[in-house]
Design brief:
Elements lengths: L2 H4 L1 H4 L2 H30 L3 H8 L4 E5 L7 E4 L9 H24 L4 E7 L8 H15 L9 E10 L4 E10 L6 H12 L5 E4 L5 H8 L8 H11 L5 E4 L24 E5 L3 H14 L1
Antiparallel strand pairs: 1-2, 1-8, 3-5, 3-6, 4-5, 4-7
The structure holds zinc ion (ZN).
Length: 289
Amino acid sequence: MNIAKKKLPDILGSRSLQAMRNRLQTIKKNYETAQFLADLFISLGRPDLAKRIANCYRRLRLEIFPPNPVSIISFEHCEIRVCPFCSYRWASQLAKKYEPLIDRKARQGQMLQFITLTVADILILDRAVLDEIWACWVNLRRQKLFKEVVATLACLEIKRNEINWHPHLHLILIGGKKISEDALSISWYKLTGNSYIVKNRPAGFSIFNLITYSLKITEIQNAEDLRQLYSSIDNYRLLRGTGKLWGIKASVSRVPAESFNNGPMNSFNIDATDLDEIIHNLDVLLGGI
Ligand SMILES: [Zn+2]
């Protein structure tokens, strides 16, 4: 496999080559994470999930349509929620749908608010814990504070440190007046019984990044972490909208496996085992540009 040396510099500028190199490096890192999770699934007695996650994103195709950046598509997905490839793919599909809807409302003059609601540290994560957070949010949303808000989007982010889980909600509110952090904090504390830390930040950052970052799968250290996280979020909605943001689903377009050998012009199939060599070739190329 020597595609990088022979053909790519004729087609791509150095910026696209650099972007491609970074993308392939991320894929390589994700393979390591997926393999680590596969080993943990084995120790949890789930060889079926181990096999699926270890085989995710293994056959890739680079598609190049100058002057656009390269796109790297995959033909095989495991669809496991904690998979580094599938979780990002799923989150970015949703983000691409929500972002224009939210931007349109902002352009129409509706106010946007970005709120974070935190929850006290949690030792053992399970679905009941997450259901409780959602129930608190539903109750909060019904309060007077939110009276003029016309649509909401809530993303449940789950972080982990060495001891505890830190679930928290990122909210995007459309319409209404600015909600004070003090009023929000009092209401959130009444509902949760132990959590009062809230933030209401000004708008002005990427909605796409907010959604994809919130839904990023947390770093898992061991089999017990994986067991708790997987059983909590598998087939579970981490993103919930109301108003015009209700009912939006990821519709990931699948590339049929048979099209693997019938790519458009300037496309290259890559096998996972070739990744190191391609990255090395790109480094050599970039060094010489
Ligand atoms: Zn996957």
